[in-house]
Amino acid sequence: MSNFVDYVKIHCKSGHGGAGSSHLRREKYIPKGGPDGGDGGRGGHVIMKGNAHEWTLLPLRYTRHIKAEKGHNGMKNQLTGAYGEDVYIEVPLGTIARNEEGEIIAEILEDGQEIIIKHGGKGGKGNEHFKTSTNQTPRFAQPGMDGEEGFVIFELKLLADVGLVGFPNAGKSTLLAAVSAAKPKIANYAFTTLTPNLGIVDYRNYKSFVMADIPGIIEGAAEGKGLGHRFLRHIERNSILLFMIPADSESHFQEFKILENELKEYNPELMDKDFLISISKSDLLDDELKEEILKEFPENRKPIFFSGVTQEGIMELKDAIWKRLHGEGENL
Questions:
Q1: Are residues 123 and 255 in the same domain?
Q2: Is 174 within any annotated ligand binding site?
Q3: Phi, psi at residue 286, to the nearest 5°?
Q4: Binding residue per annotation — 46?
Q5: Residue 309 assigned to a binding site
Q6: Where does Mg(2+) bind (predicted)?
Q7: Is residue 329 pLDDT above 60, yes or no?
Q8: Residue 192 annotated as binding site
Q9: 63 marked as binding residue
Q10: Same structural domain, 200 and 140
Q11: Residue 34 is labelled as binding a ligand
């Protein structure tokens, strides 16, 4: 999924409330009709809404300002002004909104979920509310209250079944391209994918699961080096993690421990997630080298060998992922 956008900053402004009416009833046969001014209508809200059919914040990429409608003024005969029209910002599931201070003000987890992020101003009261025994004909009414405005930062944390975790050049993009219709950029360099890619992986009997290629880890990411927290936040939302160690690594188990430590430093709760270990680019290995690599790992941490280029071990990898996602007892 190219052009992935996971961070957008928008200036949002809700509508001002409509003014109350200070109308006095004047009819031919009712010389002292008194106040009958209605209330102003509420200003429009700015509302964040979940949309399961959206995968990125790309539709919002070039949106700089969002403004809701002002509430309508009150009218005679105690008629309340119409509410200002609300504005909806549709976002993918897993999107959070922060205020200018960085505090989380909303989080969307379900399709159709709605959260008001800027409340419309209340409408002012009409003069009928201010009638007293000593002031039978008040000629004043309340103005509407101001709406809320300010910058809102929208961030998307990927909601995927499987998150791919590995150093740059571990073969994550190659795997995703091999098992899904995603078209990530692939190059042989020891830097990293700059943006996450998401792909739907077809499985047996028309089943499927979602796989996310998270930007590659570099040592010290938990302290903010490299892409730092920008990629680590995506890992929080994956159901299981797939650690990927390339076949040409100098020390496969040591590389796994470094990756594991980066996640632990960032958020110890990530260690509670279920995970698998895999050795990518296994077309570079013969059976003897595979046996040597297996000896590096403890019995309960044996890796799965696969090659995204030759498709070797891909089905076995899918089976292992499906079992972890849906339980060991599920029929494949």
A1: no
A2: no
A3: -100, 175
A4: no
A5: yes
A6: 173, 193
A7: no
A8: yes
A9: no
A10: no
A11: no
Within-domain flag for 331 = no
**Token reading at 117:** 């992020």
> Of 123, 156, 189, at which residue does a domain stop?
156
Query: Residue 83: its pLDDT value, please?
Result: 97
Does 183 reside within a domain?
yes
Is 226 labelled a binding residue?
no
Q: Is 224 annotated as a binding residue?
A: no
Residue 184: CATH number of its domain? 3.40.50.300
36 labelled binding-site residue: no
281 labeled binding residue: yes
Q: Is 21 annotated as ligand-binding? A: no
Kindly tell me the number of DSSP H helices and DSSP E strands found in the chain.
5, 14
Residues 130 and 183 in one domain: no
Q: 127: which 2 tokens?
A: 């003069």
Tally of structural domains, the chain: 2
Query: Is 194 annotated as contributing to ligand binding?
Result: yes
Same domain, 273 and 188: yes
Establish if 332 belongs to a structural domain.
no
What pLDDT sits at residue 181?
60
Q: Is 22 annotated as a binding residue?
A: no
Torsion, Cα 40 43 44 45, to 10 degrees, reads -130
> Is 57 domain-assigned?
yes
Residue 133 is labelled as binding a ligand: no
Closest CA to 149 of 118, 113, 122: 118
258 annotated binding-site participant: no
Evaluate if residue 186 carries a pLDDT over 50: no
On whether 213 is known to bind a ligand per the annotation, the reply is yes
Query: Has residue 280 got a pLDDT over 90?
Result: yes
Res. 99: pLDDT tops 60: yes
Is 214 marked as binding a ligand?
yes
Instruction: Tell me the CATH number at 147.
Output: 2.70.210.12
> How much helix, strand and coil, in percent to the nearest 5, is found in the chain?
25, 25, 55
- The answer to whether the annotation marks 191 as part of a ligand binding site is yes
| Average pLDDT estimate for 263-280 | 83
Tell whether 216 is in a known binding site: yes
Does the annotation flag 185 for ligand binding?
A: no
d(CA 72, CA 80): 8
- Give the N- to C-terminal CA distance of the chain in Å, as an integer: 28
Residue 14 sits in which domain range?
Answer: 1-156
In three-state secondary structure terms, 8 is strand
**Which residue among 96, 122, 156 closes a domain?**
156
- Averaged pLDDT score across all residues of the chain: 82
